[in-house]
Amino acid sequence: MRRRHLFPALPAVLAAACTAPATPPVIAVFFTEDSAQLDTEAQEVVRRTAAVARGGTGPVQVLGFAGPAGAVAYNRALSEARAQHVADLLVSNGVARDRIRIVPRGPVPFEAVPTESRRVEIRIGA
Q1: What is the mean pLDDT of residues 93-99?
Q2: Element (H, E) at 78
C-alpha cells in the first residue's frame, strides 16, 4: 500500500508556515523501498515547499528516515541519501544551502503503515 503524499493538505500547511507558528510545520515525502529517488508527485511537493521556504529566513531541517528491515548501516546511509536528495532539490529550487540542515535519522521502527518509515520530513523554521 502506498501512502499518499500530503499534497491535498499542502496549501494549508504551507500557508501556516508563512505565519511563523510556534511549532514548525512538517511536510513529508515518501520513498519506495531501497530508493532515494522521488516520484514526480513528491518532487512537486518539494518544489512547492521550497517556494514557501524561500520567503523566510529561518532554518530548514531535512530529516531522513528508513525502515528497520535490513542492515543498520545500509539504512543509515539510505536515510542520509534520501535527506540529501531532498536538500538538493530544495537548493535547486532556490533555498539557500546554508539554511538547510540535514538530519539522517537512520532506521526507525515501522509506523502504522510500513511505507511511512521510508520518508523525509521537511521542517521550515525548525
Answers
A1: 96
A2: helix 72-92
